[in-house]
Protein: Cob(I)alamin adenosyltransferase
Amino acid sequence: MERPPRLKPYGRPKGERRGLVLVYTGDGKGKSTAAFGLALRAHGRGLRVRVFQFIKHEGARFGEHRAFAQLGVPVEGLGDGFTWKSRDLERSRALAYAGWQRAKEALLSGAYDLLVLDEITYPIRYGWVPLGEVLEALKDRPPHVHVVLTGRGAPEALLELADTVTEMRKVKHAFDQGVPAQRGIEH
Amino acid sequence: MERPPRLKPYGRPKGERRGLVLVYTGDGKGKSTAAFGLALRAHGRGLRVRVFQFIKHEGARFGEHRAFAQLGVPVEGLGDGFTWKSRDLERSRALAYAGWQRAKEALLSGAYDLLVLDEITYPIRYGWVPLGEVLEALKDRPPHVHVVLTGRGAPEALLELADTVTEMRKVKHAFDQGVPAQRGIEH
Structure:
């Protein structure tokens, strides 16, 4: 049996207060939900939160959209879901890049304390959103702004720039045992 | 440059609908927030959600508590924060066990569609909550109930029973670079 560690109660933050860059990557479940949970917590602390989703399309109404709407946290789908399916890749590229311009503007404006760039690694990996622009915007952002970026295969230069990086590693997944996606859990 | 995969739009769930056991473990950030994000999503889908926190004390008012209160999702701190600090381990043990009885009752009642047992691995590891009882309750629960369990060092038998397991692996953490905890991000 293990002895419990000595815990200290949480107090007011001491020392430096500054915006962090957090990355959730890896092939396991929990990357986007960890970003949403952080958005929930930050909202609960009165921080100004905005969520951009780079894969979900504009009209998406998954569980998180409904709940964020109830909290008054803006969520924007920047992807093109169905068009993506139709493989109109030039349109996907244009949409992703236009979406990134909106996210960058929000990032640089300083009007938000926490921005979630959900699944942004995919358009970066497909060359639709230039990695260099993302890194520049993160470096140039006002110092109070926290940014959470999610998605598999985060590029090394992004990991280097980040303050906190977690790899969500898949140990096992219900899908692999033939269990279909469950509403309210997977989407 | 990578080619984007062929994505299918999300549809109504097909096939089996059943409650899942999900475990978020490992030493990285994002375990509890992933559970909260899942709770947010499930709530947005109209599922009945309840959150138990095995370390946070009853009066805790972190960001997540305030936001869940706004959503009308019940959150209960079952731990004893400050007493823990004072190392009154017998009281900690009694509190954890009593808290577990409450969680077990909620689990077996079928009155909720998703239960979060946040940081439950710690009282299990300290021997305050018997692992056998947790496994039994998970097996005996009504089939529609989803359960998310979080914390470092999840026991092997729990991983075996789980449908989905993610290890949150710490790649880097702001703390290690001397950046103190940020309000709204860490708590």
Summary: The longest strand of chain B covers residues 49-57.
